[in-house]
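yo

u said u wanted the structure for the complex thing, so here. seqs first:
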Amino acid sequence: QITLKESGPTLVKPTETLTLTCTFSGFSLSTTGVGVGWIRQPPGRALECLAVIYWDDSKHYSPFLQSRLTITKDTSKKQVVLTLTDVAPVDTGTYFCAQFISGTKFDYWGQGALVTVSS
Amino acid sequence: DIQMTQSPSTLSASVGDSVIITCRASQTILYSLAWYQHKQGQSPKLLISTASSLRHEVPARFGGRGSGTEFTLTISGLQPEDSATYYCQQLKSFPYTFGQGTKLEVK
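structre next:
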Protein backbone atom coordinates (compact mmCIF):
# COMPACT_ATOMS: atom_id res chain seq x y z
CA GLN A 1 0.00 0.00 0.00
CA ILE A 2 1.44 3.33 -1.06
CA THR A 3 1.00 6.30 1.26
CA LEU A 4 2.49 9.76 1.50
CA LYS A 5 2.12 12.27 4.30
CA GLU A 6 3.20 15.87 4.53
CA SER A 7 4.39 17.42 7.77
CA GLY A 8 5.61 20.83 8.76
CA PRO A 9 4.52 24.10 10.34
CA THR A 10 1.03 25.42 9.85
CA LEU A 11 2.03 29.04 10.42
CA VAL A 12 5.14 30.76 9.13
CA LYS A 13 6.11 34.42 9.40
CA PRO A 14 6.99 36.47 6.32
CA THR A 15 10.68 36.27 5.32
CA GLU A 16 11.12 32.98 7.21
CA THR A 17 11.99 29.64 5.62
CA LEU A 18 9.30 26.99 5.22
CA THR A 19 10.45 23.39 5.55
CA LEU A 20 8.05 20.60 4.65
CA THR A 21 8.71 16.89 4.89
CA CYS A 22 7.02 14.20 2.85
CA THR A 23 7.24 10.77 4.47
CA PHE A 24 6.22 7.94 2.21
CA SER A 25 5.83 4.18 2.29
CA GLY A 26 5.07 1.38 -0.12
CA PHE A 27 7.64 2.32 -2.76
CA SER A 28 11.31 3.13 -3.10
CA LEU A 29 12.77 6.37 -4.39
CA SER A 30 15.71 4.41 -5.76
CA THR A 31 13.53 2.61 -8.30
CA THR A 32 14.13 3.77 -11.86
CA GLY A 33 11.43 6.09 -13.09
CA VAL A 34 10.11 7.03 -9.68
CA GLY A 35 10.06 10.52 -8.25
CA VAL A 36 8.33 12.60 -5.61
CA GLY A 37 6.93 16.01 -6.33
CA TRP A 38 5.49 18.93 -4.42
CA ILE A 39 2.35 20.64 -5.64
CA ARG A 40 0.61 23.53 -3.91
CA GLN A 41 -2.80 25.13 -4.11
CA PRO A 42 -3.31 28.70 -2.94
CA PRO A 43 -6.79 29.34 -1.56
CA GLY A 44 -9.35 29.42 -4.35
CA ARG A 45 -6.74 28.88 -7.04
CA ALA A 46 -5.42 26.11 -9.24
CA LEU A 47 -2.77 23.53 -8.55
CA GLU A 48 0.86 24.50 -9.11
CA CYS A 49 3.75 22.07 -9.46
CA LEU A 50 6.71 23.35 -7.45
CA ALA A 51 9.45 20.75 -7.67
CA VAL A 52 10.16 17.11 -8.41
CA ILE A 53 13.07 14.94 -7.32
CA TYR A 54 13.80 11.73 -9.22
CA TRP A 55 15.27 8.35 -8.38
CA ASP A 56 18.66 9.41 -9.77
CA ASP A 57 18.67 12.58 -7.61
CA SER A 58 18.00 14.84 -10.55
CA LYS A 59 15.62 17.68 -9.80
CA HIS A 60 13.24 20.05 -11.46
CA TYR A 61 12.15 23.38 -9.99
CA SER A 62 9.42 25.79 -10.93
CA PRO A 63 11.20 28.57 -12.83
CA PHE A 64 9.24 31.20 -10.90
CA LEU A 65 10.40 29.88 -7.54
CA GLN A 66 13.70 28.27 -8.43
CA SER A 67 15.81 30.75 -6.49
CA ARG A 68 13.83 30.04 -3.31
CA LEU A 69 13.23 26.29 -3.53
CA THR A 70 15.31 23.29 -2.55
CA ILE A 71 14.19 19.68 -2.74
CA THR A 72 16.17 16.82 -1.26
CA LYS A 73 15.61 13.14 -0.56
CA ASP A 74 16.66 10.63 2.03
CA THR A 75 16.03 7.30 0.38
CA SER A 76 16.67 5.20 3.45
CA LYS A 77 14.33 7.28 5.61
CA LYS A 78 11.77 7.42 2.77
CA GLN A 79 11.51 11.17 3.05
CA VAL A 80 11.58 14.11 0.68
CA VAL A 81 12.11 17.60 2.07
CA LEU A 82 11.09 20.85 0.43
CA THR A 83 12.38 24.19 1.63
CA LEU A 84 11.03 27.52 0.50
CA THR A 85 12.96 30.56 1.63
CA ASP A 86 11.80 34.12 2.19
CA VAL A 87 8.11 33.26 2.32
CA ALA A 88 5.37 35.83 1.80
CA PRO A 89 1.59 35.76 2.25
CA VAL A 90 1.23 34.66 -1.40
CA ASP A 91 2.89 31.39 -0.40
CA THR A 92 -0.12 30.54 1.75
CA GLY A 93 -1.86 27.41 0.60
CA THR A 94 -2.14 23.66 0.82
CA TYR A 95 1.05 21.81 -0.04
CA PHE A 96 0.79 18.27 -1.39
CA CYS A 97 3.48 15.74 -2.06
CA ALA A 98 2.84 13.03 -4.62
CA GLN A 99 4.52 10.01 -6.15
CA PHE A 100 5.67 10.69 -9.71
CA ILE A 101 5.83 7.78 -12.13
CA SER A 102 7.85 7.46 -15.31
CA GLY A 103 7.19 10.97 -16.51
CA THR A 104 3.50 10.27 -16.96
CA LYS A 105 1.56 10.97 -13.79
CA PHE A 106 1.36 11.93 -10.15
CA ASP A 107 -0.19 8.71 -8.99
CA TYR A 108 -0.54 8.73 -5.21
CA TRP A 109 -0.94 11.93 -3.23
CA GLY A 110 -0.60 12.92 0.38
CA GLN A 111 -3.48 14.47 2.27
CA GLY A 112 -1.94 17.93 2.04
CA ALA A 113 -0.54 20.37 4.58
CA LEU A 114 -2.14 23.78 5.03
CA VAL A 115 0.47 26.47 5.47
CA THR A 116 -0.38 30.05 6.35
CA VAL A 117 2.16 32.83 5.98
CA SER A 118 1.27 35.66 8.31
CA SER A 119 2.87 37.86 10.88
CA ASP B 1 6.16 27.26 -19.98
CA ILE B 2 3.33 25.32 -21.57
CA GLN B 3 0.00 26.92 -20.76
CA MET B 4 -3.04 24.72 -20.22
CA THR B 5 -6.51 26.14 -20.78
CA GLN B 6 -9.59 24.30 -19.61
CA SER B 7 -13.18 24.95 -20.55
CA PRO B 8 -15.69 25.44 -19.21
CA SER B 9 -14.67 26.85 -15.83
CA THR B 10 -17.89 25.68 -14.23
CA LEU B 11 -20.41 23.09 -15.24
CA SER B 12 -23.74 21.98 -13.83
CA ALA B 13 -25.45 18.79 -14.91
CA SER B 14 -27.95 16.26 -13.65
CA VAL B 15 -27.47 12.73 -12.46
CA GLY B 16 -27.26 10.45 -15.47
CA ASP B 17 -26.10 13.18 -17.87
CA SER B 18 -22.82 13.16 -19.78
CA VAL B 19 -20.39 16.06 -19.78
CA ILE B 20 -17.24 16.92 -21.68
CA ILE B 21 -14.38 19.00 -20.31
CA THR B 22 -11.84 20.34 -22.78
CA CYS B 23 -8.18 21.07 -22.19
CA ARG B 24 -5.95 22.87 -24.68
CA ALA B 25 -2.19 23.13 -24.54
CA SER B 26 -0.28 26.16 -25.83
CA GLN B 27 2.04 23.82 -27.75
CA THR B 28 2.01 20.17 -28.63
CA ILE B 29 2.36 17.79 -25.72
CA LEU B 30 1.75 14.61 -27.74
CA TYR B 31 -0.04 12.31 -25.28
CA SER B 32 1.55 13.67 -22.09
CA LEU B 33 -1.64 14.63 -20.32
CA ALA B 34 -3.25 13.57 -17.06
CA TRP B 35 -6.65 14.30 -15.55
CA TYR B 36 -7.31 14.62 -11.82
CA GLN B 37 -10.44 14.85 -9.70
CA HIS B 38 -10.19 17.12 -6.68
CA LYS B 39 -12.80 17.31 -3.96
CA GLN B 40 -12.59 20.02 -1.33
CA GLY B 41 -10.61 18.96 1.70
CA GLN B 42 -9.20 15.91 -0.04
CA SER B 43 -6.13 15.20 -2.10
CA PRO B 44 -6.40 15.18 -5.90
CA LYS B 45 -7.03 11.77 -7.39
CA LEU B 46 -5.53 10.63 -10.67
CA LEU B 47 -8.18 9.57 -13.15
CA ILE B 48 -6.38 9.28 -16.47
CA SER B 49 -2.77 9.37 -17.64
CA THR B 50 -1.17 9.54 -21.10
CA ALA B 51 -4.36 11.17 -22.35
CA SER B 52 -6.54 8.07 -22.32
CA SER B 53 -5.28 5.43 -19.88
CA LEU B 54 -7.81 4.96 -17.14
CA ARG B 55 -6.25 4.47 -13.72
CA HIS B 56 -7.17 1.21 -12.02
CA GLU B 57 -10.25 1.43 -9.82
CA VAL B 58 -11.52 4.53 -11.66
CA PRO B 59 -15.02 3.89 -13.00
CA ALA B 60 -15.33 3.28 -16.71
CA ARG B 61 -17.72 6.22 -17.04
CA PHE B 62 -14.61 8.40 -17.11
CA GLY B 63 -12.88 8.61 -20.49
CA GLY B 64 -10.04 10.65 -21.95
CA ARG B 65 -9.17 11.39 -25.56
CA GLY B 66 -6.92 13.61 -27.56
CA SER B 67 -3.36 14.25 -28.60
CA GLY B 68 -1.16 17.15 -29.56
CA THR B 69 -2.87 20.23 -28.18
CA GLU B 70 -6.51 19.26 -27.70
CA PHE B 71 -7.83 16.86 -25.10
CA THR B 72 -11.16 15.96 -23.59
CA LEU B 73 -12.41 14.31 -20.44
CA THR B 74 -15.84 12.77 -20.79
CA ILE B 75 -17.89 11.68 -17.82
CA SER B 76 -20.90 9.57 -18.75
CA GLY B 77 -23.80 8.65 -16.52
CA LEU B 78 -22.99 11.30 -13.93
CA GLN B 79 -23.25 10.32 -10.28
CA PRO B 80 -23.62 12.69 -7.31
CA GLU B 81 -20.12 11.74 -6.13
CA ASP B 82 -18.68 13.13 -9.38
CA SER B 83 -19.18 16.66 -8.05
CA ALA B 84 -15.63 18.00 -7.85
CA THR B 85 -13.11 20.17 -9.59
CA TYR B 86 -11.31 18.52 -12.49
CA TYR B 87 -7.81 19.47 -13.57
CA CYS B 88 -5.76 18.57 -16.61
CA GLN B 89 -1.97 18.57 -16.36
CA GLN B 90 0.69 18.42 -19.04
CA LEU B 91 3.74 16.27 -18.35
CA LYS B 92 5.62 16.94 -21.57
CA SER B 93 8.03 19.41 -20.04
CA PHE B 94 8.67 20.92 -16.64
CA PRO B 95 7.03 22.84 -15.03
CA TYR B 96 4.24 20.30 -15.31
CA THR B 97 1.49 22.86 -15.56
CA PHE B 98 -2.14 22.38 -14.62
CA GLY B 99 -5.22 23.86 -16.19
CA GLN B 100 -7.20 26.32 -14.10
CA GLY B 101 -9.78 23.67 -13.24
CA THR B 102 -13.40 22.91 -14.11
CA LYS B 103 -15.84 22.86 -11.23
CA LEU B 104 -18.57 20.31 -11.84
CA GLU B 105 -21.81 20.30 -9.89
CA VAL B 106 -24.02 17.26 -10.22
CA LYS B 107 -27.59 18.00 -9.24
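Chain B touches chain A through 24 residues (CB under 8 Å). The first strand of chain B starts at residue 4 and ends at 7.
cya
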